[in-house]
Write a structure and sequence with these properties.
Chain lengths: 361, 361
């Protein structure tokens, strides 16, 4: 536990002082007028971040719990759905659908590539898909998918759009209403600058219509119950009150900065990191045209173990970066640049990276 | 948001300074050696509180999420189970089982009464029940069930014992191993003195054997995945890191005091409250022989609206107590006395209650 630790992984992110202070406040009751005001204000702030006038519900779970809610509230066992996988997290949404009995067809891209739009178009043209599942921003490969284009294909085919925006929401534009996204999931520990422990799910009218006939079993993650409770200023089950108090603090920071400025700051920092990595002679992982603005993946120099670089940054510079997951474990490195990120943090991690490369040479 | 607010509801409870300080610490990484040490120490601390050498898994959700895990990991659709309901929360465990397709038979007590042991014995004698579901401590009615006796009946009938101990764990003795409890659920926001947001589930060998063939769908709450991750010092999905840091702080407080002393403090405070309420001429709700040591329910004086008393305590004394739920809404009052509770807090709430009665007279 060191106060100077600079967390540059793709979530959890560092916490602003305002958030840390909010977390330390005394406990509040969750069935009180004060809590009703708090959750109403947080919901409005989330609608601002999601760019939606639709319902946004707050769940006490990590992002994966929100993803489960996004599946089980809108689908029935046996429903044919199309899952787009471009990495570890894209795969998760489809795996949840499978676990609850959906008939999942996969359109899988090689890691480092975005969604194969033509393959999605062709698969949807076959007809009958109840939903299209995909990741907005794939942290495992540092790729941002063409969300608007994919949503357009789903709408044309009459399929629901269910989007995992856990890692990118707030850092990379997600225009929920303009793009007609039916169900969008975000999490607290990314651009929202909070500890993990809350998930947020937006639901369109089309989503609620699907919910009316969806029969997958659900209880804790029942969004209709969450919506009914929200109208009374409550949650169906005891929420993480402290984290919701801190959510208000973080949403206030985002509203004060302006969401467009938050997006611009992420874009600027991402470019700074990408250029810095290139200047160090390191090769990026993934298709540069779809490079994420919240995480950058790159190969270590030939013959250098990524673990040695991660350890050097952690032990000598007190900076946390991370490696690759799944089948690519040990193959490349990832730097997260989201949440409180600024040029100073980016310069610090690049300087440390240069030192690690010198040490490894 | 007032620093002097005294929370005397049956959870969330007030937070010790050590917990508030822990919550305010900078963020940590959740796939690091430091986190592995942290979760190992917390698991050992939870085993101490649960009085078990079995697995105890940490979930990022509120207690109800832990209850869902306790059902879906051990049962299959169509399984006949016996659910004992003595109030709002006893009913919840059975409702979850129903939502996921179990064939639930109910043994329901009138509110204020404990489990009907003879009816449970008779129902189990019919045979074939896969599990017995019940609440250890029913906060909605301030009743503690005869847990050991119920567990013995389940064992004799070859049924799993699935216990919701969310509100009582730590405050009222639960001897998980000695009593042969298979699956026990607890939550962070009660006697563990943390904000809501973590659930804890212990699993016996018999529980794991049942898990091997249980087919209810699960993903976020998959306990087998949680156990496999824990062996690597991790969790399957991003955990609420801040709350786990705070959990270590609260477990350290409990270990320093000694669990037997924590139980004794709760028993002493409960008696102080019960006697104080009686001295004020108020009639207790519920069977006194099974009165809970973490919450006390009592009727207001004839003709006095419980809401007026709750408001008086909140607005004039900055103390939060609560009313009754469900069908008993508006009928009685409840004072929670758990977590950081001491005689000073109890004296303060009783003095405020006396003032409220004088004001209402």
């Amino acid at each position: 536990m060191n106060d100077d630790l600079l967390i540059m992984i793709p979530g959890p992110t560092g916490l602003p002082t305002e958030v840390r202070e909010a977390l330390a406040r005394p406990q509040i009751g969750h069935r009180t007028p004060a809590f009703a005001d708090l959750i109403a204000d947080c919901t409005a702030g989330l609608q601002y971040v999601f760019r939606t006038r639709k319902d946004v519900l707050i769940l006490t779970s990590s992002g994966t719990g929100g993803m489960e809610a996004a599946i089980t509230n809108f689908l029935s066992p046996g429903d044919p759905v199309l899952a787009v996988s471009v990495g570890n997290f894209g795969e998760r949404l489809g795996r949840i659908a499978e676990a609850f009995g959906a008939e999942v067809t996969w359109v899988t891209s090689e890691w480092g590539q975005p969604a194969d739009v033509e393959a999605v178009r062709a698969a949807l043209a076959g007809g009958g898909h109840k939903a299209l599942l995909f990741t907005q921003n794939e942290t495992s490969t540092s790729i941002t998918n063409p969300v608007e284009e994919l949503a357009g294909l789903a709408q044309a085919a009459g399929a629901l759009t269910i989007v995992d925006a856990v890692s990118g929401m707030g850092g990379v534009p997600v225009l929920t209403d303009d793009w007609g996204l039916d169900v969008v999931v975000a999490g607290s520990q990314k651009t929202l600058m909070l500890p993990p422990g809350l998930a947020f799910v937006s639901v369109s009218e089309r989503g609620w219509q699907a919910n009316a006939t969806a029969t997958m079993p659900r209880f804790y993650f029942d969004l209709r119950k969450a919506q009914a409770s929200l109208e009374k200023g409550q949650t169906p089950y005891t929420p993480n009150t402290s984290l919701i108090v801190a959510l208000q603090a973080s949403l206030n920071l985002i509203r004060a900065e302006g969401i467009e400025n938050v997006w611009a700051r992420h874009a600027e920092c991402a470019q700074f990191i990408r250029e810095g990595v290139a200047k160090l002679g390191l090769r990026p992982f993934g298709d540069a045209r779809y490079a994420s603005n919240v995480v950058t993946a790159f190969y270590p120099p030939e013959g250098v173990d990524p673990k040695a670089i991660i350890s050097h940054l952690r032990d000598r510079h007190n900076i946390l970066i991370t490696g690759a997951q799944g089948a690519y474990r040990g193959k490349f490195l990832r730097i997260g640049h989201l949440g409180t990120v600024d040029r100073g943090q980016c310069a610090r991690v690049l300087a440390a990276l240069a030192d690690a490369l010198a040490a490894a040479a």
